[in-house]
């Protein structure tokens, strides 16, 4: 049996500004963008060479709005793996990404926590082989 995660729902306040952020700041690709109803779209953004995308969901009510930036209750929500930590760290910093710590070496690799423009915490990590 083969299974994988294809997409993770990611609440945002506005589709277009979220797409702009993910594609220009984090270097994701806009994989799909289809209108599915009034004020509703099916929008996928995908990291380079990733099999998993983020399904951007524009918040439509108070409950969904409270999740923007706090989808993991202030814990690291997502882990962005890279093949070159320092390339991506420096590129992200130059685009204004807020890192919450100095990069550190752990037994599993080089890692630093950053916040996206919405307030969610991520790990940027290059794992050791």
Salient structural properties:
four-stranded mixed β-sheet; alpha+beta; 129 residues; five-stranded mixed β-sheet
Provide structural commentary.
By secondary structure, the chain is of the alpha+beta class. It is built from three helices and nine strands, in the order βαβββαβαββββ. The protein has helices at 15-25, 62-67, 85-94; strands spanning 7-12, 29-37, 40-46, 53-58, 76-81, 98-99, 104-106, 109-115, 121-127. Strands 5, 6, 7, 8 and 9 form a five-stranded mixed beta sheet that branches. A hairpin with a 6-residue loop joins strand 3 and strand 4 (53-58). The longest helix has 11 residues, at 15-25. The two termini are 26 Å apart. 19% of the residues are buried.
Can I get a quick summary?
By secondary structure, the protein is α+β, with helices and mostly antiparallel strands. It has helices spanning 15-25, 62-67, 85-94; strands at residues 7-12, 29-37, 40-46, 53-58, 76-81, 98-99, 104-106, 109-115, 121-127.
């Amino acid at each position: 049996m083969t299974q994988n995660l294809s997409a993770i729902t990611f609440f945002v306040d506005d589709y277009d500004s979220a797409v702009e952020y993910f594609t220009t700041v984090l270097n994701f690709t806009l994989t799909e963008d289809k209108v599915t109803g009034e004020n509703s779209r099916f929008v996928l953004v995908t990291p380079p060479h990733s099999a998993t995308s983020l399904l951007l969901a524009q918040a439509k009510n108070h409950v969904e709005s409270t999740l923007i930036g706090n989808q993991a209750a202030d814990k690291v929500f997502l882990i962005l793996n890279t093949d070159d930590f320092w390339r991506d760290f420096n590129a992200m910093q130059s685009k204004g990404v807020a890192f919450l710590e100095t990069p550190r070496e752990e037994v599993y690799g080089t890692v630093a926590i950053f916040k996206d423009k919405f307030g969610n915490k991520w790990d940027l990590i290059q794992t050791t082989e």
